[in-house]
Amino acid sequence: MTFSKKVFNFNAYSIFNQYQMSKIKRRDFLKTGLMAGGAVLLPRQITGSGFSMNRPLHYRSPSGGEIPDIVTISGANPEESMSRLLEPLGGIGQFVRSGQTVGLLVNSPWKNPGFYTQPDVVLSLANLCLQAGAKEIVCFKPASQAYWERGLLFEKLKSVIQRIRYGSDLIEVEIPEGVSLKKAKIYREFKETDVFISVPVAKHHAGVIYSGNLKGMMGVSSHDTNRNMHSPEGDYTYDQHEYLAQCIADLNLIRKPDLCIVDANECALNNGPAGPGETVRPGKILAGKDPVAMDVYSASLIGFFPDDILTCKRAYEHGLGEINPEKVKLLEL
């Protein structure tokens, strides 16, 4: 793991975590399970006042013939690595078939590196879907031309960008099993595409500690819905973290991803969601089908853990995925 050119200040990070932890209660769940047995050990070396970073997570290595739950590969060259990343999961054909429409949920609005999904990750995935016979690629949340131009593959894969359609109309849907969020306005295309692939960047978020697949789901909902998810009064605040985390988990009940691709090349450590801020470079791309397990693992790469991330616990309680790493099979290519 290497750090970005922005100098990572351990004292500043410690103060930041102390500030965060003064605003939230420590979450005490699954500690026994997280500390017990397993083949893969991810030790955390960073320490911060009031924020223990020495909680190792243990993952199983898949045995012969087992399909992994999470696959990781170097993110240095997404165009070359994307197909190989998906091979242990059955290849792109396991998720996308000829004639289908594929919807991508991409974290694209921000300008600071580490705070948005790298365009080359998205374009490599979209190109792979088209090669598998996808009829259409839809980005639920519109992305600007400037976003695509940040990627090294912009010129080479312009034809892919030209085939991407964006979400337009909003519809209101009910969430009968939602605890705090009972309805939401979302892009119509989110309900209509045959395949849904979540493509977030792993990063910090001031309201719920970590932003990945679960938090990224707010990209399919309207501004008004997102505003009302931040507090019962509809105020845009990060102080109502428990309410926001529950609403995010509720929103994820609308539709679960068929596939999750997480950009963990360069990741923001603070000042999320927009930045600027300090970043770290795990240098990975991840793939899997379980958004909760993927968030737990990808968050650990940048120093956040399940008992710090209430969205993971609430989503787990909804039955949206596995939160206990020792039950998750991890393959590192």
Task: Annotate the secondary structure layout.
Elements: E1 2-3, H1 10-23, H2 31-35, E2 40-42, E3 57-59, E4 70-74, H3 78-86, E5 101-106, H4 119-131, E6 136-139, H5 145-149, H6 158-162, E7 164-166, E8 170-174, E9 183-187, H7 188-192, E10 195-199, E11 203-205, E12 209-211, H8 213-216, H9 223-230, H10 241-251, E13 259-264, E14 267-268, E15 279-281, E16 284-288, H11 291-300, H12 310-317, E17 330-332
Parallel strand pairs: 4-17, 5-6, 5-10, 6-7, 10-13
Antiparallel strand pairs: 1-15, 2-3, 4-16, 8-9, 11-12, 13-16, 14-15
Give a short overview.
29% of the residues lie in helices and 20% in strands.
Describe the overall structure.
With 333 residues, the chain is α/β, with parallel strands linked by helices. The protein has a single domain (2-332), classed as LarA, N-terminal domain (Rossmann fold, 3-Layer(aba) Sandwich), CATH 3.40.50.11440. The chain is built from 12 helices and 17 strands. It is globular. The two termini are 16 Å apart. The model is unreliable at 1-54 (pLDDT under 50).
Biggest β-sheet strands, sense, barrel: 8 strands, mixed
Portion of residues in helices?
25-40%
Full CATH superfamily name: LarA, N-terminal domain
Taking pLDDT < 50 over at least 5 consecutive residues as the criterion, the unreliable ranges are 1-54
> Tell me, what is the CATH class?
Alpha Beta
Entry keywords:
alpha/beta, Rossmann fold, 8-stranded mixed β-sheet, 12 helices, globular, disordered N terminus
